[in-house]
């Protein structure tokens, strides 16, 4: 079975490009060119040079000794939090800005939830001197204030999305509307493995550097490039897809994707898409999404803005449906506790998104021999307000 | 011959009006259709609301949200339209996004349309390939026309393909835009409309998005068989005086 995209833009039953005609020329231009551009030697050289000298890659694979002892397994953290701008998001924005330049685009738009993708986009726009507009839900603007300030300082215009739940889904709607109204000179840098084909594949390719490096690092550190488990949190699913990518065809490596249960999957305040969702179309692709009987998108909830999204990327839907990946969920409380635990045991303050993946360790049992890799997708600086309020610090 | 074909054969300067089902009040759907026909509308596009209408501007976003809050869904809409053809004779299209239609079931949707006398639908985010591969036979079996959009950026090859799959008319967007912008006929737009005319398509065209006044309507009718008014009409609807608000809006178009 193939877990990757086919020539029609589908992963099994999922994917495709469900977009209005207004977006067709842009998306088609991308579809026809993305692989050609990415495979070009010049592009590869520039991409990898920037990842090394500007982002600071390779990111370390760190054996967390005290955590390992506590859980009775070898716990490795893939340190995407150490990237420039503080999360995995920049791997994708570097790739897409180079691609946008090669397509002759002059203006960049993006959506953002936690603000990490917005910051990563504003950063590469500053780096290359391109105009940047970031759409962000009004609620997220409040809970991620430091990132809003960073984007502004980087020269981006931050536009509040005031419709619907005023979070990531609505920011995505606004970005798509912007693209419809600016069909010629604008490139939309989507921040996750969602959206119409070829976005899920393109973003996965740019993020796949995470598992590419991890394999090499595992060989160096353990002599075996196949861990027993790979874990990552899933909002739209880009850090998870990057972490899974080169392990997907290694069927003995167990892939665990951690969604946000919010206040609990049955509480009505959750973002546990695979548990609560059904098949349907959101933001241009057929996938699994949280919706009513009538196909209206349900407003999600998570303490972490980056996971507060009612869908998942189509490749995740495929991994879920085929059983190749195990999809689980972690509550707000569990994730915050896991964030505090990592901070106090390893001296690393994780993003609350990443803390969801860490929290799942509590639910696993080990014999002491297993190698476990967790994608530490981002750092917790942006979440200090939430942590401080929750723990009364 | 079906209602859409007859209309395009017999009339020019066709005035099509879009409004959202279940807005301003849940039960207004059919009353608005009746009043619009009385006031001289030639074609109706009834929107079935969706929570995430990416092709729409603020006015239709707001009417969709209100309609959903009022309790509108496809099941109720088809119930409301049960006796449509007792009082409304002009062609009626349903317009909305693909996800509610998929959840209802495409076959159920087309059957329900045929049963109540809906003539066709416009689903902007239903891709042409999926329509062609999966759904066209279902639409055709039920006699439902699928209306496609074309923008100034749509290539001539693709327009021809769309023409081949269309059975009714083609919806020309004056520019690539979300709904509710203002039509601005520049030299580029004129060149685009002329380009379309020169293609000598099998299906007639009407122009939509940005038609808000008599003036823009007349302009659009120079280049196509008619035009569609959406946001401007929705904005003018008054919940407490529906009939009067429709009459006064329609007066400028059909004095
Ligand atoms: C640190 C971090 N991790 C994870 C995510 C979730 O996104 P994705 O599922 O695409 O990796 C975000 C999104 O903002 C993030 O900032």
Automatic annotation (TrEMBL), chain A:
Catalysed transformations (reactions): (1S,2R)-1-C-(indol-3-yl)glycerol 3-phosphate + L-serine = D-glyceraldehyde 3-phosphate + L-tryptophan + H2O
Superkingdom, natural source: Bacteria
Record keywords: Amino-acid biosynthesis, Aromatic amino acid biosynthesis, Lyase, Pyridoxal phosphate, Tryptophan biosynthesis
Cofactor field: pyridoxal 5'-phosphate
Any one Gene Ontology molecular-function term assigned to this protein's record: tryptophan synthase activity
Complex and partners: Tetramer of two alpha and two beta chains.
The protein's name in its UniProt record: Tryptophan synthase beta chain
Organism: Pedobacter metabolipauper
Lineage, top ranks: Bacteria, Pseudomonadati, Bacteroidota, Sphingobacteriia, Sphingobacteriales
From TrEMBL, chain B:
Pathway it works in: Amino-acid biosynthesis; L-tryptophan biosynthesis; L-tryptophan from chorismate: step 5/5
Catalytic reactions on record: (1S,2R)-1-C-(indol-3-yl)glycerol 3-phosphate + L-serine = D-glyceraldehyde 3-phosphate + L-tryptophan + H2O
Signal peptide range: none
Top-rank lineage group of the source organism: Bacteria
InterPro entries: Aldolase_TIM, RibuloseP-bd_barrel, Trp_synthase_alpha_AS, Trp_synthase_suA
Record flagged with keyword Cell membrane: no
Active site, UniProt feature: 45 (proton acceptor), 56 (proton acceptor)
Example of a GO cellular component annotation carried by this entry: cytosol
Alphabetical keyword list: Amino-acid biosynthesis, Aromatic amino acid biosynthesis, Lyase, Tryptophan biosynthesis
EC class: lyase
Quaternary state and interactors: Tetramer of two alpha and two beta chains.
Protein name as it appears in the record: Tryptophan synthase alpha chain
Organism: Pedobacter metabolipauper
Taxon lineage: Bacteria, Pseudomonadati, Bacteroidota, Sphingobacteriia, Sphingobacteriales
Gene: trpA
């Amino acid at each position: 079975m193939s877990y990757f995209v086919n020539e029609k833009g589908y992963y099994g039953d999922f994917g495709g490009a469900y977009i209005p005609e207004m977006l067709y020329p842009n998306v088609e231009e991308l579809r026809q060119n993305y692989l050609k551009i990415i495979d070009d030697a010049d592009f590869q050289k520039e991409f990898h040079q920037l990842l090394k000298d500007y982002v600071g890659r390779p990111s370390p694979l760190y054996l967390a000794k005290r955590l390992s002892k506590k859980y009775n397994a070898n716990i490795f953290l893939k340190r995407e939090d150490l990237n420039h701008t503080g999360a995995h998001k920049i791997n994708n924005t570097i790739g897409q800005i180079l691609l946008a330049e090669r397509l002759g685009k002059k203006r960049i738009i993006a959506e953002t939830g936690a603000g990490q993708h917005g910051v990563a986009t504003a950063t590469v726009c500053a780096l290359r001197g391109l105009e940047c507009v970031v759409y962000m839900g009004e609620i997220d603007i409040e809970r991620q204030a430091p990132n809003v300030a960073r984007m502004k300082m980087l020269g981006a215009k931050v536009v509040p999305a005031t419709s619907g739940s005023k979070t990531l889904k609505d920011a995505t709607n606004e970005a798509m509307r912007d693209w419809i109204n600016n069909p010629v000179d604008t490139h939309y840098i989507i921040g996750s493995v969602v959206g119409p084909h070829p976005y899920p594949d393109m973003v996965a390719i740019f993020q796949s550097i995470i598992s590419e490096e991890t394999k090499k690092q595992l060989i160096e550190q353990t002599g075996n490039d196949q861990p027993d488990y790979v874990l990552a949190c899933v909002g739209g699913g880009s850090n998870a897809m990057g972490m899974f990518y080169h392990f997907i065809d290694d069927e003995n490596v167990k892939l665990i994707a951690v969604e946000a249960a919010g206040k609990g999957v049955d509480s009505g305040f959750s973002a546990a898409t695979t548990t609560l969702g059904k098949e349907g179309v959101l933001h241009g692709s057929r996938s699994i999404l949280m919706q009513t009987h009538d196909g209206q998108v349900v407003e999600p909830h998570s303490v972490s803005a980056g996971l507060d999204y009612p869908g998942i990327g189509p490749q995740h839907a495929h991994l879920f449906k085929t059983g190749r990946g195990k999809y689980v969920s972690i509550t707000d409380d569990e994730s915050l506790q896991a964030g505090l635990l990592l901070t106090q045991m390893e001296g690393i303050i994780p993003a609350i998104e990443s803390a969801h993946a860490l929290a799942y360790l509590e639910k696993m049992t080990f014999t002491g021999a297993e190698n476990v890799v967790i994608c530490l997708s981002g750092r917790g600086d942006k979440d200090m307000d939430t942590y401080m309020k929750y723990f009364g610090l | 011959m079906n209602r859409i074909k007859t209309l395009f054969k017999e009339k020019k300067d066709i005035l099509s009006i879009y409004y959202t089902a279940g807005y301003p009040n849940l039960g207004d759907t059919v009353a608005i259709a009746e009043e619009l026909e009385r006031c001289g509308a030639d074609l109706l596009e009834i929107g079935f609301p969706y929570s995430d209408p990416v092709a729409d501007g603020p006015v239709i976003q707001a009417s969709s949200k209100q309609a959903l809050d009022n309790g509108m869904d496809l099941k109720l809409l088809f119930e409301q339209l049960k006796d449509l053809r007792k009082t409304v004779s002009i062609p009626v299209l349903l317009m909305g996004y693909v996800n509610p239609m998929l959840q209802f079931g495409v076959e159920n949707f087309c059957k329900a349309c045929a049963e109540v006398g809906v003539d066709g639908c416009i689903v902007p985010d239903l891709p042409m390939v999926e329509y062609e591969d999966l759904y066209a036979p279902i639409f055709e079996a039920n006699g439902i026309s699928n209306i496609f959009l074309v923008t100034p950026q749509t290539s001539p090859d693709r327009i021809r393909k769309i023409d081949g799959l269309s059975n009714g008319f083609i919806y020309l967007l004056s520019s690539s835009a979300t709904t509710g912008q203002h039509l601005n006929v520049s030299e580029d737009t004129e060149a685009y409309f002329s380009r379309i005319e020169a293609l000598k398509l099998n299906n007639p065209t009407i122009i939509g998005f940005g038609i808000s006044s008599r003036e823009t309507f007349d302009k659009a009718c120079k280049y196509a068989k008619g035009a569609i008014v959406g946001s401007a009409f929705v904005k003018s609807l008054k919940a407490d005086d529906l009939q009067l608000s429709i009459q006064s809006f329609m007066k400028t178009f059909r004095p």
